[in-house]
Amino acid sequence: MATPSATSHALVLGASMAGLLTARVLSKHFAQVTIVERDVVPDQPEARKGQPQTRHLHGLLASGLEIMTRYYPDLPDALAAGGALVIDMTANMCWYTYGGYRRRFTMGRKGALMSRPFLEHLIRQRTLARDNVTLLDSCAIRGLVTGDDRRRITGVRVEHRDAQSLAATLTADLVVDCTGRGSQTPQWLLALGYPAPPQSEVKVNVGYATRLYRRDPADPRGQDWLLYTPEAPGERRFGGMFPIEGERWIVSLGGWTGDHAPTDEQGFLEYARSLPMPEIYALISQAEPLSDIIPHKFPASLRRHYERLTRFPEGYLVLGDAVCSFNPTYGQGMTSAAMQAAALDELLTLRMGRLDGLARAFFKRAAQVIDTPWQLAVGEDFRFPDTTGPKPAGVDLLNRYVAAVHRATLVDPVVGAAFIRVMNLLAPPLSLMSPAMLLRVLRGASQRRAPAVARGVERGVPS
Ligand SMILES: Cc1cc2nc3c(=O)[nH]c(=O)nc-3n(C[C@H](O)[C@H](O)[C@H](O)COP(=O)(O)OP(=O)(O)OC[C@H]3O[C@@H](n4cnc5c(N)ncnc54)[C@H](O)[C@@H]3O)c2cc1C
Questions:
Q1: For 181-245, where are the alpha helices, taking DSSP H only?
Q2: Residue 72 counted as domain residue
Q3: Does the pTM of the predicted model rise above 0.90?
Q4: Which residues contact 24 (CB under 8 A, 6 or more apart)?
Q5: Is there a single domain that holds both residue 285 and residue 347?
Q6: 84 CA distance to ligand 1 centroid (A)?
């Protein structure tokens, strides 16, 4: 069967961010969509066992929020109504790096700061409110099912994790693997006689330690997001403190190449105090903690190159962290998943739902979507000499220029705006290299650094 009909069925494996966005997109093109998830999925904003990263600092880039709003038009209002900050990310920015604060300005493009479980809860509610989307939770995928000739995936084998651990087969016209970084697709492909995708792995040995604190809504700093990122390779630590719903702060401290924050009270505070930016320590040493300090290790960015495979079964796709999981310090994962889901939507619309040959076309588009965030993340990571893995050609030279960009953002809001657009995946990295920008970068980088206090906001979108 090549074209979805009135009885067509799609299966989405995994009910986290990529799975929910994919199900939303597929609900336009298929009669029925079933999401299958191993965990019990709560009907409230809560982290689950299968997605431990959701307890840590998560920001939603402007491009990610814009794509999600296309599919869930009331999302910004619902976020704000629940106490999240839907804000012009640059006006509320207090970002210290390269010895100073990036200049603030208004950009006119909004991102969102909230706990990740709250964002996911809103996305899940809206996805499951679609008439043709069903969630089957507490149900683990055990393998793929094919026809006799193994050309097409026709479904999955599942095990219900109830008392009887019932095994069953679910059939579908299209199956999309959104089971995250630990996806078993490479092994499942090998078992069916297909090659596994080549992998790029860039080892960064990043560690997070995260704690929630009470936020005083009357504090004038309570609407700012605070971030310290290192001038690599001499500095290796980072700190992020975002205001989130429930009048709380979420604070993640950590570092590259094994320089991780301790998870005991005193060690955590000392680590915060060691950052060149004083505000995070000043705030958390006074604020009331609301949680334990939770660690998370991220060994390596991992990209599976499905676009390079010449043999792949029909009726099957892979999307989200299952294709590419980035060093999280750049905040790109959810936006990358949203961009991939939107690319799938466009492709299905263009092909009027025709499924034959979909995988090749989709993986080509997904690779284009992933190329930019991968290049940005991996490029920065190779500032650290301990980073290992496939190093892009010319990255050391490029990094010297990007260091100049970072320095120029401390004094020139036009460079700052160009940088923030690239970082938010709103503009291509090449936009930082026009002759006019090059001049500003070189001039800005050679100027005296901004004083060590956050500045007022400059109104208007610098261009
Ligand atoms: C510390 C940290 C901080 C981050 N910060 C940000 C940020 O600021 N901004 C941002 O955009 N991104 C951030 N990310 C990345 C973001 O969390 C991921 O990109 C995003 O969650 C991708 O979601 P996913 O749905 O692809 O995978 P996952 O969230 O990993 O979800 C996979 C799902 O599949 C289910 N599953 C797995 N195996 C099976 C199976 N066999 N059967 C059934 N179900 C299964 C799991 O239970 C889970 O629900 C961060 C990541 C980390 C680690």
A1: 185-191
A2: no
A3: yes
A4: 71, 72, 123, 126, 127, 130, 133, 341
A5: no
A6: 20
**Do 133 and 81 share a structural domain?**
no
Asked if 163 and 128 sit in the same domain, the reply is: yes
Residue 156 CA to ligand 1 center (angstroms) comes to 21
Tell me whether residue 57 is in a domain.
Answer: no
> What does pLDDT average to over the chain?
94
pLDDT tens, position by position, 411-459: 999 999 999 999 999 999 999 999 999 999 999 999 866 554 444 555 5
Confirm or reject: Cβ of 51 under 6 Å from ligand 1: yes
Tally of structural domains, the chain: 3
Residue with tokens 């010319």: 394
Tens of pLDDT, residue by residue over 274-306, are 999 999 999 999 999 999 999 999 999 999 999
Cis peptide upstream of residue 278 (ω within 30 degrees of 0): no
Ligand 1, closest atom to CA 320? 26
Q: How many helices (H) and strands (E) does the chain have?
A: 12, 21
List the CATH number of the domain containing 88: 3.30.9.10
Same-domain check for residues 399 and 428 = yes
> Which ligand 1 atom minimizes the distance to the CA of 41?
49
Share of the chain above pLDDT 70, in %: 95
* 21 and 129 in a common domain: yes
Mean local confidence (pLDDT), 355-362: 97
